[in-house]
Each structure stands twice: as C-alpha cells, then as structure tokens.
TrEMBL record:
Main localization, broad class: cytoplasm
Subcellular location: Cytoplasm, Cytoskeleton
Keyword terms: ATP-binding, Cytoplasm, Cytoskeleton, Microtubule, Motor protein, Nucleotide-binding
InterPro entries, per the entry: Kinesin-like_fam, Kinesin_motor_CS, Kinesin_motor_dom, Kinesin_motor_dom_sf, P-loop_NTPase
Organism: Leptocoma aspasia
Domain Kinesin motor: 1-336
GO cellular component, one term: microtubule
Record protein name field: Kinesin-like protein
Family label: Belongs to the TRAFAC class myosin-kinesin ATPase superfamily. Kinesin family.
Length: 340
C-alpha cells in the first residue's frame, strides 16, 4: 500500500488526514463512523521515498525472477489522482530533454537499471525487447508503432493463452533506449484533465519487457539447439486507469464514456480477483473474457505468474469511500495464490 501526501488543494480545503500507517504492514483508517485496520506485505506512508518503495516492495527480486524465466507483473491500482503513475514512472513532466531528478524515478526506471546491471553481471546472453500497449475504451492499441494508434485484435491460443496480434516489439540494450521507449509511448497515451486530476490516465497501459536468455555451457562449435536451453521471462508493468465517480470528476460527454469503460473493466478485474481469492475447492469459472484487461492479465492473476500489486490511496477525508474500497480490493488480492 502506498499512501500519498495530502495535496495543497486538500490542505487548503481543510481535509482531515484519515489514513495512518501503524508500521509493520498495518494501515489504520479512522473517520466518523469508520475505524478499520488492514494488514499488507508493506505500507509506505507519505514520507517514503521512491527508492524505499522500490526496495521495500521486493521489486528487485521480481526483476531477478523474470531473468530466471518467470512471468512477473507489477500493477498499480487505486482511485484517480492517488499516485499510481507517479509510483510507476515518477513525475509526469519529464521528457527526453528534461529528465526527472534520479531520486524521483519510479519503479519502472529503477527496474530497468536493475535488469541491465543484472544482465551485465551474469555475463549471459540476454536478449531484451519491449512492447507497450494501452486499452482505451475496450480497444487494444500499440503505443510504440508509428502513426496514429490503431486497434489490434486480441486472440487466444492453447500454447500462448491470450495475446495481441501484430504488436510491435522493440529490442533495446541500454537504459537510455528503454527509457526513451517508455517516454515515447507514455506521450501517446490518452490522458485528460478533470476535477480530481490534471493528468488523468484515460486508458490502462501495459509495458512488457521480454527477457530471453541462452545458457552458455558449450564452446561455440558444439552449440546445437539442444545444447543451450533458452529461458524466456517477462516483466510487465500495468498502470491501471483510476477508478472514479463521474459526479466527483465532473466528467461529461466523451470523458464520461471513458470513465464508464474504465470502471467496467476495473469491475471485471475486481470480480476475477474475488473469485481467485476463494479457496481452490470453492472456485467456479473465472470470467477472464469479461474485459480486454482481464484477458491480458489472466496469466498474471491466476496462472503461473508472480504478481506485485501496489495499491495507491489518498489520506484525505474527502476520498474516504474510494480509499476503503481500494483497501478492501487489495485485501482480497492478497489472498490470491498462484503457482509460478
């Protein structure tokens, strides 16, 4: 759980701080009629640095597991304006000419650095490539292919599960190259301003790093396909669009159509998580097909993946109901077990 600081607007308005970290993974919500304590793997309060979130969420272990051939996913979840994009990417104002200060970089850039350091130190032959998609109004669009974003079909196969047809994968070898891909894709992503957030993400974005490693055991002249098994891991970062109440954001027209499709897909995700949290014997069919988002996350949620969920919340009394709903959601997600 990450609790962001109160914003200037909230402080000026006289909002009360209703969320307090109790240490040791516990968070307490106290307001009129509400008094609840929740337990999680870790809680980062307003004073926690980006570095502390990276180290304390065990993100470094996730990168190492992806190199070892596992399918790893990190997703940021929470109300609009609660700090999801900041946690994953750092400040939004950065560009290629004006990079953010190193202390403010998010989980993504820190993971890229860690991945490239590991790949150098292992001396093994790692092939790295990236793909970047957004789901906007239930359409899957490629954020890296040139030209205006066009909708791509989502297919299913027995071997691959759900996959996106014709998505572009770009190979990279340096930190600069992957950070540029991230910035380039993020600038093409749909965002709008509304009452709760000047840069509200209007789409769910999925950046996937594909890591293929070949083991070096034999001299080159003995190399045959069978002599060097290759491991393929993925590290997927999911920046979910924020859940929002249309009456709070003052959205209308196109913005409210977007909000409805965002809320529908988050509801489908919540439904899958609730069913996955039930004990194995009581599980019924998990409805991954209910939305494009749950199809693309099927492997991460209930399959063979290893998933880190960072739930971002606001401490303000004005956001109380959304904060409680995020905490309940995260408590359910915590009970889901996968078989990596």
């Amino acid at each position: 759980i990450r609790v962001r600081p109160l914003t200037c607007t909230e402080t000026r308005r006289g909002d009360q701080q209703v969320v307090h970290s109790l240490g040791d993974g516990a968070v307490h919500v106290s307001a009129a009629k509400h008094d609840a304590t929740f337990g999680f793997s870790a809680v980062f309060d307003a004073g926690a640095s980006q570095e502390a979130v990276f180290e304390g969420s065990r993100m470094r272990q996730l990168v190492e597991l992806a190199i070892d051939g596992f399918s790893c996913t990190v997703f940021a979840f929470g109300q609009t304006g609660s700090g999801k994009t900041y946690t994953l990417m750092g400040p939004l104002a950065q560009s290629e000419t004006q990079p953010a200060s190193p202390a403010l970089l998010g989980l993504m850039q820190r993971s890229f650095t860690c991945l490239l350091e590991q790949s150098r130190s292992r001396g093994s032959d790692l092939a790295l490539s990236a793909s970047y998609l957004e789901i906007y109004n239930e359409q899957v669009r490629d954020l890296l292919s040139p030209g205006p974003p066009c909708a791509l079909p989502l297919r299913w196969s027995k071997t691959r599960g759900f996959y996106v047809e014709n998505q572009l994968r770009v190979e990279f070898e340096s930190l600069e190259a992957i950070v540029n891909l991230l910035l380039q894709g993020s600038q093409r992503r749909r965002t709008s301003a509304h009452a709760l957030n000047r840069h509200s993400s209007r789409s769910h974005a999925l950046l996937t790093i594909h890591i293929r490693s070949r083991a070096h055991h034999a001299p080159t002249w003995v190399l045959q396909a069978s002599a060097c098994p290759s491991k393929q891991g993925t590290l997927c970062f999911v920046d979910l669009a924020g859940s929002e109440r249309v009456k709070d954001t003052g959205s209308s027209g196109e913005l409210s159509v977007e909000a409805n499709s965002i809320n529908r897909s988050l509801l489908a995700l919540g439904h899958c998580i609730s069913l996955l949290a039930k004990p194995q014997g009581k599980r019924t069919h998990i409805p991954y097909r209910d939305s494009k988002l749950t199809r693309l996350l099927a492997r991460s949620l209930g399959g063979s993946g290893i998933t880190l969920m960072v739930a971002c919340i606001s401490p303000s009394s004005r956001c109380l109901s959304e904060t409680l709903s995020t905490l309940h959601y995260a408590s359910r997600a915590r009970r889901v077990t996968t078989r990596p």
